[in-house]
Structure formats: structure tokens, C-alpha cells
Amino acid sequence: MSGPVAVIDIGSNSIKVLVAVRGADGSVLPLHVRSLDTRISAGLSQAEPRLGEEGMARGLEAIRTLLADANRFSAEKIVLVATSAVRDARNGADFRARVQAATGHAIRILTGEEEANLIGRGLTCDPALRGLRDFYVFDLGGGSLECLAFRDRCIAQAASLQLGCVRLTEKFVADPTMPLTPAARAAIATHTRAELTRVGFRLTPTAEAIGTGGTVATARAILGARQGLSLGQTDPLISLAQMREMLAWLGALPLAERQRIPGLPAARADVFPTALVTFIAVAELGGFSSFRNSLYNLRYGLADATLGDS
Q1: What distances in angstroms separate CA 106 from CA 8, 17, 63, 93, 103, one per listed residue?
Q2: Residue ranges of the domains in the chain?
Q3: Residue pair 161/199 in contact by the 8 Å Cβ criterion
Q4: What is the pLDDT of residue 309?
């Protein structure tokens, strides 16, 4: 396959596309990236989670839009995958059937293990990380937190935990339109630490921590906006102190004010405090002083695998 491939990632908070080709040096070269906030995962914390009609309609419309993007780049192969929201929903099969009927494309449901391993594969495509041998990767979505430990650039540990920011906001935050309460913050942090301990995911501060997904990128964008910088111009290293300061500031604001913060997408403002609490809890448990943001994620891992099939 000489032409580009497209990957559409149907996540809990957003649906995203990557169109990419194989570089002459074997790297994955992005031609087009786009993300649409859809929040198909409302109700994910329920005992029997189901995708709502409005969420499925938003999701289908976003998929149609991103498929049109892929077609404009003449993608020779288009891969659609879904993660926690569709994986866990009782009516996930109904959503998949609707998408296939409307677009002709089947959705592959990734297991937690597949998702974690493909995120890891994507991270190894990041040229900025080529010098790292031992490191951790934490990818926080709306439904789950994917945790990986690399040793000599190979995955030594992998865990997919139901610690997504939409799921935990629904579970622990009584009113997301109001400031985050100390009790909710404590409950989220305690639950996060307990889940990591329960699955036996071993943490050591001697290896660097990489943060992928929307949370660390959004924190980076907020810090950049304060200085008038674009995301690409900002320092990819976000310190634990910066996260704590950001949580203390925006966590004290009601939703309407959080939605006006430059760099913070309005559609994510309700769950972003929960996401920060989760990352801070991981850092405190593991003894990490910072997270390095990488934009090479699940989509890059899938693109690498798909291009490898050519």
C-alpha cells in the first residue's frame, strides 16, 4: 500500500482521525489530524451503562465528517476502532450496526489490553522519545486509564482501568456545574490509588512518566495560552506543581467560568478537574515530579500497524 491510511478513534469524550503515510525512514508521518468532541459516554458509570440516543447521533455525525476528511486525502485503507464507551455499553452493538449501515464501515472494538498495547506502539513512533529506554505511559480518556511500563522500549506491564474522567465525574461529583469540592477530590484520588494498587501495577520514580490523551495536552494548552503560545510552541513537560496549581485555580471555578478558560475546550470543562485529580494521584503514588506530553497515541499505533500490513 503506497498511499495514506486513515484511523478513526471513537473514544468516550471525542472522536478523532489521523491520516498518515510511511516516511522514508520508516516513521509514521501525519498528513491530517482532527478531533471532534462528542461525549458519547454519558452514563458510563451506571451499573449497566448504555449509549444515549443523542450521544449516538453525535457520534455518527462525527464519524461521517471524519470519513469525509479521510476521503479527501484519498486514504487507501480506513480503520475505525472504538474503546471504553462502546466496549462497556450494553447497546454498543447497536451503535456499531448503525454506523455500518450508514457508512459501510465496520467498527473494531478494542479490548483494554489491545488498546494499551497500541498506545504503547504509538508512543514508540514519537521521534522525541527515541532516547528513552525505560518509561511509563498514562493515557486518560473518558472511560478508562491505560497504564504501561516500558523496559528497554518493550512493554513490561499493561493495565486498562475504569478510571476515565467522565466515569469518575459521574461517580464522585454530585454537581459538575459547581466548583470541585474537597470531598469529591479526595474520593477521586483515593479511588485512583486504590485501583492502581489493586491491579498490582508497579510504579517507580526512576523512570520518566509520559502523559498522552487529552488531559496533559489540555494542561499544556492552558499553560501555553497564558503566554500566547500555540500547543506546538509549548514545553511538553508539565510538572506536578503546575498541575496542582491549575487544579487549585480552575477547580474552584463554576463550570460557566471554566468554559471560558483559553486552551480548555468548553466540552471538556466539566470533567477536566477530575482528570487533573487523577493524574495528580498517579504522580503522588508513583513519585513522579512531572509528565512529558506526547501526541503519539493510539491512532499512531494503529496507523503504524496498518501501514505495516502494506
Answers
A1: 11, 15, 12, 11, 8
A2: 5-113, 127-293
A3: yes
A4: 57
Give me the chain's average pLDDT, please.
92
Dig out the grid coordinates for 158 from the structure: 499493561
Output the pLDDT for position 1: 45
The tens digit of pLDDT for each residue in 106-139 reads: 999 998 889 888 988 998 889 888 888 899 999 9
Orientation angle between helical segments 214-226 and 240-250, nearest 10 degrees: 80
CATH class (in words) of the domain with range 127-293: alpha beta
CB of 138 closer than 8 Å to CB of 282: yes
**CATH of range 5-113; options 3.30.2020.10, 3.30.420.40, 3.60.21.10, 3.20.20.370:** 3.30.420.40
Q: With both helix axes pointing from N to C terminus, report the angle between 165-172 and 272-286 in degrees, rounded to the nearest 10.
A: 100
Given a cut of 60, whether residue 144 has pLDDT beyond it is: yes
SS3 19: strand
C-alpha grid cell, residue 6: 486513515
Over residues 57-81, mean pLDDT:
96
C-beta of residue 218 within 8 angstroms of C-beta of residue 284: no
Q: Do domains 5-113 and 127-293 have the same CATH topology?
A: yes
φ, ψ of residue 187 in degrees (nearest 5): -65, -40
What's the rounded Cα separation, in Å, for the pair 265 and 165?
Answer: 14
